[in-house]
Amino acid sequence: MRPPSLVHVVARALKLRPRRLLPCLGGTRQLHVSQRRDTDGVFKELTEMRVRTPWIEALRKKEMEGLDPTQRSSIPATPSNRDLTPKSMSDSYHRVVIPLAQDPWLLDNYLNANGQIRYVQKYTALGTIFMDLDALSGVIAYKHTGDSVTTVTAAVDRITINHPLQELCDLELSGQVTFATGRSSMEISIQVAKAPVKGASVQKQDVLMTCAFTMVSLDPNTKKPVAICPVKVETEEEKRLYALGEKNYNIKKARAKTGLRKQTPNDEESDLVHAMWLQQLEYHDPNNPLRKPPHTHYMSSTTLSSSQIMQPQYRNRHNFMIFGGYLLKTTFELAFCYRRF
Description:
alpha+beta, two-stranded parallel sheet, 9 helices, 7 strands, globular
């Protein structure tokens, strides 16, 4: 008669069936653990850099400190003696490859119902890629400013689609701070390109899209602008990028002075609006044969709106504000719906 196995001996002692004890003793029965998947749609590598603390822990910490995360504080959190030594553009450079051609599960976040990457031309994922780009701009900004400030997206400028994507491939997202004078704002230049093979560099014809993000640094408590390190230029290409950012900065300042909140419409603008108003009146005059062309629409007929409850998974790096990339993606997709008009 064969002696009882160790499993049977232990099972008898514990009054358990041997089959139920096998998993505890390294038997063949195994449990399947699903891979963690992020819920806000941002590429995982960028999300790990953006969201570092579970939201419930951040909330409990604020409650223990007796602070209301929705209210401003009069006590600054940014040290006044921070090192603001000028930094080079390369100090903030960051690159990430999104393996769309290698990961079908990841590709799900970018495809439409026709199996094409969403929205512009045949294969251009602007909605979801904008969200990734905003996350990338945050990573780049904090490499330049450090973690003692809150950095928010102020604007996205000069979006240029150079070569619409015609095939599924891995995408390389890269960028760096290219303009900063030492005040609170900085410009980050970003490009999206076909990911080159290992050891090669991106070719001009493989650059799919370029854009510029304007980021502003604030004190985490007071929410007031704070100074950041200026950028120093070292090469001819960096001088070109800095000059482009400076030009864009000056254009924005000039436009701010002539905006409708600062200045009334000039004679040319007033005449144009008046002419448009008179023309649309003629469309309703029964004695006038002029009718609204079928390819035109009144602005009121194109109105769309969307209401959404913002949940913690859509937060930004500082836990109690909404991630700007999510808002950018949502508003872009809402604007895309206007194409039906």
